Each structure stands twice: as structure tokens, then as C-alpha cells.
Amino acid sequence: MTVRMEPEVHRMLAERAKEVGASFSRYLIECGLFEWYQRHGILTPEDREALLFLAFQVTKVATNLNQIARRSKLTSGIINPGHLEAVTVELKEVTGLLKSLLGEV
Q1: Total count of domains within the chain
Q2: Distance (Å, rounded) from C-alpha 98 to C-alpha 92?
Q3: 33, 50: one domain
Q4: Whole-structure pTM value
Q5: Alpha-carbon distances of 82 from 46, 49, 72, rounded to whole Å
Q6: What's the rounded Cα separation, in Å, for the pair 31 and 105?
Q7: Number of Cα atoms under 13 Å in the Cβ half of residue 48
Q8: Does one domain contain both 72 and 94?
Q9: CA geometry: angle at 73 spanning 72 and 77, to 5°?
């Protein structure tokens, strides 16, 4: 596919693509999909790093929930409120990060 544009426009788009860590073609595709409401915008390297951290945090929460469930089954079925409080704090942190990434905060 060929896309024609003024040299100055090409320079500006190429510069922006480089800033967000995307190839020129990926940048054009993501911008087009964004305009068509199929994407929420192009992820910057900082966004990608935040999402990786978020994925790590969600995995930690899931692990904690599994541990609580296992311990509950092994004991009398009573869950220690301290464990639930720790998981609740982590979930609130993850939710805050998600809202921030989505621009809802």
C-alpha cells in the first residue's frame, strides 16, 4: 500500500512514531483504528511498562487469592480477615493503575 503525503507531514508522523516506540506503519494503523474507535490510543513505552507492571500485580493478587482459598479449605473454612485486607489493598492499587491508564482518574 502506498500513502502519499507532504514531506513535512511524513517527518512529523515519523517523529511521533519514534517517540511512542512504534514503526511508522504501526503508528498509522493505530491512529486509524483509534479514529474508528477500535483503540484507545497508541501505547508509549511508559504505558507498556505500566501495563507489564499491572499484569505482574494482577498475577500476585490471583496467587494470593488462590493461597487464601487453599488455606480456607485446609482449615475450618474460616478465612483470616488480615489476608483478605491485604488482597483488598492490592486490588485497589491495581484498579487505580487501570483507571489511570484509561484516563478515568
Answers
A1: 2
A2: 10
A3: no
A4: 0.47
A5: 34, 30, 13
A6: 23
A7: 7
A8: yes
A9: 55
Largest Cα–Cα distance of the chain, in whole Å?
Answer: 72
CA dihedral 84, 61, 101, 36 (to 10 degrees): -120
How far is 10 from 62, CA to CA, in rounded Å? 45
Beta strands in the chain (DSSP E): none
State the DSSP code for 50: H
pLDDT in tens, 79-98: 666 777 787 788 888 877 77
Residue written as grid cell 508522523 = 13
CB-based contact 19:45 (threshold 8 Å): no
Give the number of other Cβ atoms within 10 Å of residue 31's Cβ. Answer: 17
Taking alpha carbons only, the member of 63, 60, 69, 47 closest to residue 94 is 60
